Amino acid sequence: xxxxxxxxxxxxxxxxxxxxxxxxxxxxxxxxxxxxxxxxxxxxxxxxxxxxxxxxxxxxxxxxxxxxxxxxxxxxxxxxxxxxxxxxxxxxxxxxxxxxxxxxxxxxxxxxxxxxxxxxxxxxxxxxxxxxxxxxxxxxxxxxxxxxxxxxxxxxxxxxxxxxxxxxxxxxxxxxxxxxxxxxxxxxxxxxxxxxxxxxxxxxxxxxxxxxxxxxxxxxxxxxxxxxxxxxxxxxxxxxxxxxxxxxxxxxxxxxxxxxxxxxxxxxxxxxxxxxxxxxxxxxxxxxxxxxxxxxxxxxxxxxxxxxxxxxxxx
Amino acid sequence: xxxxxxxxxxxxxxxxxxxxxxxxxxxxxxxxxxxxxxxxxxxxxxxxxxxxxxxxxxxxxxxxxxxxxxxxxxxxxxxxxxxxxxxxxxxxxxxxxxxxxxxxxxxxxxxxxxxxxxxxxxxxxxxxxxxxxxxxxxxxxxxxxxxxxxxxxxxxxxxxxxxxxxxxxxxxxxxxxxxxxxxxxxxxxxxxxxxxxxxxxxxxxxxxxxxxxxxxxxxxxxxxxxxxxxxxxxxxxxxxxxxxxxxxxxxxxxxxxxxxxxxxxxxxxxxxxxxxxxxxxxxxxxxxxxxxxxxxxxxxxxxxxxxxxxxxxxxxxxxxxxxxxxxxxxxxxxxxxxxxxxxxxxxxxxxxxxxxxxxxxxxxxxxxxxxxxxxxxxxxxxxxxxxxxxxxxxxxxxxxxxxxxxxxxxxxxxxxxxxxxxxxxxxxxxxxxxxxxxxxxxxxxxxxxxxxxxxxxxxxxxxxxxxxxxxxxxxxxxxxxxxxxxxxxxxxxxxxxxxxxxxxxxxxxxxxxxxxxxxxxxxxx
Lengths: 315, 525
Description:
heterodimer, A: mainly alpha, 12 helices, 0% strand, globular, B: alpha+beta, 12-stranded mixed beta sheet, 4-stranded antiparallel beta sheet, 30% helix
């Protein structure tokens, strides 16, 4: 097992280097430079040139890439032009917020999705199955940002049950109940689509397993239905559900971009969108590399979990 | 136990959870106490170092924490004393001597004096200054004319300019000229922008990244003290969310309300403020080549476009029709005699026929958004349709804002016949000087991207810049406006009215033509 993990970790290195090259190239090649973004209407060629020099952007591209990569390996992600603070500080602070949001969403969509799938499969074509399928269809079809806006309108503006946006109350908040109040709507809106996908997949994975001979054997020897479903069937079905959880985690992470904007959640997705519009090169590059690295690690963790569940998948 | 009964239990648990969550939601409507004003901003500020920032969004915080030597008189764009109590301008217009206000201290307790003023301008302008590296200072060219800043005595400071430069006093009132505490810059260096210290009616308290900037009343302020204990600036980048926060009571004041949302605040509980400012939205026409090289075709475009429809239907009345290159907000320099080009498609057709430009094909650069650009895509398509109606075949090319600037600023030659543009400035000199002189063609580092050239206009602008008498300057600007309107290097479209909404707990709030947000006198109940 240790060897397998090491091998997977080693294979992540070229992926990460590839990512640094791609994100660097994209940011260098898209039209518009940071000086133009900062100066706006006042971006005369002369002013742009001077500011680019002040920002250290007048060096050749290859040289800039090597400097950036070298600094990053020593833990120095540089300073953000648009926020005037170290990139790494900003990323870590923002990533923390994103983790809270996506983590909650991920737990919600996994638990709700698998539960819905299992109930659907156990009651195939029954009322519960049809009701769940209907709700799931809606969950998959409604874009998450739209769902988010509608939730704000209903629960925050009209009913005033929940705060509209942000992560903590501006005044007098900052504790856990305050965080939860702010978290409910974005986490649910973000979990909706993934819950639907996981529910549908869990249902078909369970149905497949429930047709197996050993399930019939288990039932024949009088194992209670609940144990047949939760113990015998779900455990086996998890082998095909878990990789989908890994993929959905990626979708939840990318879906967080819209949700963070709608709910003004101070996360990494919103940070990246702002940074791209302001051509904040170092912040975009650092942010993308950081998120990509997390995603790669998460995938490795999923693969390892899968190999633990199914010993046939190994090395 | 069957699965069904198990899920029933699950349902019960879920219902319980919702109930608990319901309990959590109870204080959600609790609002900030009286005396604390929450302002919905459009973005997180970049920095609170006035010399280092360029965005109106950041200026809205800065002008409450800092003051400049001069400031705009309330409700106008005319300059009045602030940290300087009076000034003398030498006969030739190159030496400005300021007498500074006595007894002013920075929030850190250090005194405001001539040394502090010198430190501020040297930091920005002198590359060898020990704290020049706290930049970059993108708008330092506002003070590019300053040759030397001299301490005459403790409370007198003298600026020597390399040439007469009349906009100098109003540039000092612009946020780039706000005075920072030298002691604080020395102590914090590059981090000064996150620990700002000025002399203003509010002092900086806290900056929680991506959540809020908090400023508190400065009880040692030299003038009348602020009407609120604290102001909290919240960045809410999404316009819909900002509107929702305002409706839900999460903020007391919001700026830049989307035109289509204004109707939601027409009822009780809110009041809407509007204020025209020094903004002009126009189309740059390529006067160097193609159909617009002919003045008649440029005038035809001005007649063909229904500007009334654009400001009333597309912008929902949040702008007025522009008559010429200078916005009416510069009341002292504005030519009241100018009437906007009327909407007259027949006249446009006649002019096009006279110029032999019927059916000409035009390329039109449109942006997706950007500072002061209002609603550029719907405005662009409305303009396209109007030009189509008089027989001009217009093709739109749309660009993201930074890309757009990268295409338009170097000049339209060989690329396009027309492009959208908007400017907000602080002095009637700025825009025409940078964008209408023949010396300001892009290859000379200016913004005259349509290559307009008229020697008389050049002469007037140079003269206005060096005249130190304001009445004389005004006369020159008025004459310039008449000529430019007739020459039609641009299609003059709109002057934006800035808006803001306040809740009924807010009193004494007003917007300024400078588009800055002065909150000293505001009271929150």
